[in-house]
Fold each of these.
Amino acid sequence: MPNYVYAGAAPWIAASKGAVTGGLFRLDSDSGRWEKLTAGLPDEVEARCIALGPGGAVYVGTQDGPYRSTDAGASWRKLALPGKEALVWSILLDPTDPRTIYVGTQGTTMYRSRDGGESWTELTPPEPLGMVKMSFPCRVIRLALDPSDPRRLYAGLEVGGVLMSRDAGDSWRGCNEGLLEFTKEPRLRSRIVSDTETEGMMDSHALEVSPAEPGTVFLANRMGLFRSGDGGMRWHEIGIARFSPLTYARDVKVSRHDPRTMYAALSVAAVSDEGSLYRSRDLGETWQRFDRGIAMKSTLMIIAESPRNRNRVYCATRKGQVFGTEDGGESWREYRLPDGVEGVYGLAAA
């Protein structure tokens, strides 16, 4: 499979005047050129998440449901969900069984396929304690599996905290009691568009579980980075402010090559003019700035590590800057998305 990088964009409320807010793009990192992907995708595609599958397969979540490509993105086929078309925010492939796929959509609705996306079961967990009514619908922003037990599934809700299932999504329980406890501290209260100061702690952005510590889930949200060692019952603040002046956490990733290595996307706020990429080599105990010699001019949204090459790491900002290293962080290169594209949500590096 070529060394492609995929980036997806979708509308966002604070886009620059005249900006393009949508599209799916493929970068040939050898040539440094972007190509817009359209064949088989919806018109004016909104691409909010991207996942790589075995055999060169690529999955993208759109406003018209999930799509799959088996030719590195040259063409796409829709994987029809039951009922009305769903706006997809997250896609997860079970690493122990790639024919099992999970999709998170608007609201708290999720879908599971056991046959590679040919048929789907709708998963409808109840709203958890602490769900916040915002000016936009709740969405399942991220899904994560515990590598030690692939039936243990976590869902991050924006803005509704965390849900956990012990049976691959058939039943669910909320994991918000411990997160809500943090809002007793004034510094961890945040209200922007709702009527409650618990909004910030419920504003989940990303979830990860490392095989180095089964049962431990890491959460990135508006207020920083948090971890739970007991499947979401109790939570502890990682304390990213000890290492970074930026604490708004949009993404957290565990390396596929070293389960004790993690990456975090840190910024000022959802709408900002600064971002940073940090790395931990001790499972979140300490963190160091990872990006070098580049200038992020908006919120850092997402991180993508190549599953084939541990030295190949990419990240993307809200306003269309994509940065990549091919040598483990020693040097970086910027690949600006074409045509003034903004609203980046999805990123994947082959």
Amino acid sequence: MTETFGQRFSRFRKAKGFTQDDIANKVNVSSQAVSKWENDINMPDVGILLNLGDILGVTTDELLGKENPVPAKYEPEIVQKDFSKLMLRVIVDSHEGDKIRVNLPLQIVKIAIEAGAAPAMTVNGEGKVADAMASIDWKQVYSLIEQGLLGEIVTVDSADGDKVRIVVE
């Protein structure tokens, strides 16, 4: 089921620890207006959306639910690029509002794989996201990156609303 604007807005607000009154005061509307946004009765005016994004620390696109993943693609010319400058980025957004960002240089990933230790990219806890992350064959992922795979290479969306993305750039 797709998350509505109200659900998304409420999740972002609670993750920042704001009450409906806090938001209302910051954007000069009534707390009833904020309640209507969260209950999907009304939407905030366009002029307020930018302020809401700034207050909640998200982009307007995120607030409106637009996902803009970077598709994975092969770029064989990566062989000529300075491979040492590539990063493996792990992005975790939990349904509870936690945001985890890990940036690993590919050289460190290679060293970990060669030492027989998968990169520490599991999600604490239990559930489908943790299971999916634990089942990733990092040797195979690294091999694909060496062959030129760039962009978003792993995406996991759990039924609980947790999102994990692994991006090479």
